[in-house]
């Protein structure tokens, strides 16, 4: 599938934008006015087009997925939610794209649903394009009166569309017209009211969320723990297999009636791996079954639990009856199976981390601070202030010194320099820039001081849009992949059904005529009863 996108040329400052008066009286005033008029017409078209769109879109970061069954499970449960019209989940990108009716459901509800399925989710971006949005951390509120005071006064700021403050979370959501105001005015207004306010960290702009370190560490530890017990299990299994080829079974028995040394030591090695090394599988399998979903974790737990508990039960039974031999068990299965699966999960998350490195590096190119200046008609700096890049507003005049990253997209209004734009164009040499030239946020100013007018800020910058497009490209699925995801949803139930059918058939055949089993499988065990032989072959198959 594809995505429809367009880069809006939201232009320079207008009469209501901060910094506009600083540009008055320059030689380029006529050209600037023409650009402003063109930009305003673009804005009007954009808003008019957005008024007819009743659907909203949000992107979620989803971690904990291990296979296509996880993808199918999340998509299936999201589509069951009233108001969700479309859901698309990407395994490698660890992202979910959801289109929903905001009157019926909100992103936090979708996050809660995914978390209840055994995964971890957070909202990356609500992708609203009609108005600018800011999420602020607000400290100092003590009652609902404080909330009402902030909401009432902030909505009085020209250009603020809505204000929503949550006392419990100490956060506020604000929507505004970026051509008339911005987050800096909102923060200042809240501070004037006697509260503390600052931008809330946007996880989408933080490269750390792409890190797979925690998952890599978790599965590495699980693998190493399973390795400690799994390797001795394999060695013991091969040793006793060789012994049985040389000696008769009676020679290998018994520590106790019905308990051989082989079964005793394999039991000691299998138990820690089953319940400690496999604890992550237990948690994920239980959460999946609670929501009537079957995935690979369920299949793994079925295989290891059947092998382990069958072996425990059959050995216990032989001990209780005082048998003269110990039964055939499958204690070696859990350590070896969990060992190799943990290794696979570890390598899988290492690979996922590698695929996200390029995007993480791209995100890390974004500046974190900007120098906001006030200038006179001759572009002499009269005041300057270091602010968070999230507080930069359209029309602000920013100073960029040599060696500094350009904080946002803009147009040079004073100075000339060479700018390294390799992150966008791939050019190895810096590009000459002069008054009127466009500059890209994240590029590096090499040798001259510049004053730029911010034209695209926040999520509208070129770098932010590239990040968005790269993530959407990772999220999109080919038709064959969509078909594979649908089939994956039937894989685990199919395997379980086939296994149960095979077990029941062998048990029925064995009790109907045990000679049908001995005809095809040689009886290698001494003093093996028919019941034991039937159970062994049924569980093996």
From TrEMBL:
Q: What is its main location?
A: Golgi
The HMA domain, residue ranges: 56-122, 132-198
One of its Pfam families is: E1-E2_ATPase
Q: What is this protein called?
A: P-type Cu(+) transporter
GO terms assigned for molecular function: ATP binding; ATP hydrolysis activity; copper ion binding; P-type divalent copper transporter activity; P-type monovalent copper transporter activity
Protein source organism: Ornithodoros moubata
UniProt cross-references to PROSITE patterns, sorted A to Z? HMA_1, HMA_2
**Region named Disordered:** 16-42
Q: What class of enzyme is it?
A: translocase
């Amino acid at each position: 599938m594809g995505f429809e996108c367009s880069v809006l040329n939201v232009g320079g400052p207008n009469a209501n934008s901060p910094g506009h008066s600083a540009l008055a009286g320059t030689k380029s005033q006529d050209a600037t006015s023409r650009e402003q008029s063109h930009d305003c017409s673009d804005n009007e078209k954009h808003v008019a087009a957005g008024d007819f769109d009743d659907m909203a879109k949000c992107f979620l970061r989803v971690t904990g997925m291990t296979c296509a069954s996880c993808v199918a499970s999340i998509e299936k449960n999201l589509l069951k939610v009233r108001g969700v019209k479309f859901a698309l989940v990407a395994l490698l990108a660890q992202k979910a794209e959801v289109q929903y009716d905001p009157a019926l459901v909100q992103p936090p509800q979708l996050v809660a649903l995914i978390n209840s399925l055994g995964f971890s989710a957070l909202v990356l971006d609500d992708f609203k394009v009609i108005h600018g949005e800011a999420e602020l951390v607000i400290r100092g509120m003590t009652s609902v009166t404080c909330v009402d005071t902030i909401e009432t006064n902030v909505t009085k700021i020209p250009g603020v569309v809505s204000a929503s403050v949550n006392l419990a979370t100490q956060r506020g959501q604000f929507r505004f017209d970026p051509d008339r105001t911005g987050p800096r005015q909102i923060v200042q207004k809240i501070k004037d009211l006697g509260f503390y306010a600052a931008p809330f960290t946007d996880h989408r702009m933080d490269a750390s969320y792409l890190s797979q370190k925690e998952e890599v560490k978790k599965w590495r530890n699980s693998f190493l723990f399973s390795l400690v017990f799994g390797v001795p299990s394999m060695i013991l299994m091969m040793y006793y297999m060789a012994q049985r080829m040389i000696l008769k079974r009676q020679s290998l028995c018994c520590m106790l009636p019905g308990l051989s040394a082989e079964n005793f030591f394999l039991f000691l090695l299998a138990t820690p791996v089953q319940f400690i090394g496999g604890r992550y599988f237990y948690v994920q399998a239980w959460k999946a079954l609670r929501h009537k979903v079957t995935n690979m974790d369920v299949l793994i737990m079925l295989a290891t639990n059947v092998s382990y508990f069958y072996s425990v039960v059959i050995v216990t039974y032989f001990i209780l009856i005082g048998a003269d031999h110990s039964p055939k068990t499958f204690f070696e299965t859990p350590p070896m199976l969990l060992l190799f699966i943990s290794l696979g999960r570890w390598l899988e998350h290492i690979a996922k981390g590698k695929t996200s490195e390029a995007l993480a590096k791209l995100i890390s190119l974004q500046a974190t601070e900007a120098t906001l200046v006030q200038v006179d008609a001759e572009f002499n700096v009269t005041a300057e202030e270091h602010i968070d890049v999230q507080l930069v507003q359209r029309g602000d005049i920013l100073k960029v010194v040599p060696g500094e990253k350009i904080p946002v997209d803009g147009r040079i209004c004073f100075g000339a320099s060479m700018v390294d734009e390799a992150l966008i164009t791939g050019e190895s040499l810096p590009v000459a820039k002069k008054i009127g030239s466009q500059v890209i946020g994240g590029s590096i100013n090499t040798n001259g001081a510049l004053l730029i007018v911010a034209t695209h800020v926040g999520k509208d910058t070129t770098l932010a849009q590239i990040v968005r497009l790269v993530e959407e490209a990772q999220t999109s699925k080919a038709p064959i992949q969509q078909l594979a995801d649908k089939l994956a949803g039937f894989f685990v139930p199919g395997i379980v059904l086939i296994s149960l059918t095979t077990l029941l058939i062998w048990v029925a055949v064995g009790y109907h005529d045990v000679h049908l089993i001995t005809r095809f499988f040689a009886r290698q065990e001494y003093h093996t009863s028919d019941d034991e032989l039937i159970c062994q072959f049924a569980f093996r198959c």
